[in-house]
Design brief:
By secondary structure, the chain is mostly helical. Helices cover about 50% and strands about 5% of the residues. It has seven helices and two strands; from the N terminus they run αααββαααα. The protein is elongated, with a radius of gyration of 18 Å.
């Protein structure tokens, strides 16, 4: 199974906010630099995350994004569905190949529903907090907490 680049980048960005973010908002540009994601692309992803109320945005000096809830309350399923829509829609094949008549009676369509349920269950039990704990256990480098970015 392959996730879209938007989903992958959305997970990386949300992880970055949870792992490196403090109470102060973080600029998309900073997250993009740390995660090597183009800023323009990341801005589009953050609009979807904001509409899903996973992040809050602040404009102006000192602006940026921060998580709208505690990392323990945000799951990977929340992120995936904020970006792609309902998971069942993206995992369960619904269209027959062109020019073919539906042959639903002879195919195990229930298979995809079970796969979607299993993936959704796994994503729903994985929180940003659990990702951060695992990253700390594996000694993933954090952004320097004492560094500040000044723009003139």
């Amino acid at each position: 199974m392959r996730w879209s680049l938007q989903v992958q980048y959305g997970v990386y960005a949300m992880f970055d906010l949870a792992y490196n973010g403090r109470e102060t908002p973080v600029q998309v540009r900073v997250i993009g630099e740390r995660q090597q994601i183009p800023t323009r692309y990341l801005e589009q992803i953050f609009q979807r995350l904001r509409r899903a109320r996973l992040v809050e945005g602040k404009r102006g000096p000192g602006g940026g994004y921060r998580l709208s809830r505690a990392p323990a309350e945000i799951t990977l399923l929340d992120i995936v569905e904020a970006i792609e829509g309902p998971l069942s829609r993206s995992l369960v094949p619904t269209l027959e190949p062109r020019g073919r008549r539906p042959v639903q009676a002879s195919r195990p369509g229930f298979l995809w529903e079970g796969v979607a349920e299993g993936v959704a269950r796994s994503l729903a039990t994985t929180t940003l907090e659990s990702l951060c704990r695992e990253a700390a256990r594996r000694a993933v480098k954090r952004a320097d907490a004492d560094s500040h970015t000044y723009v003139i």
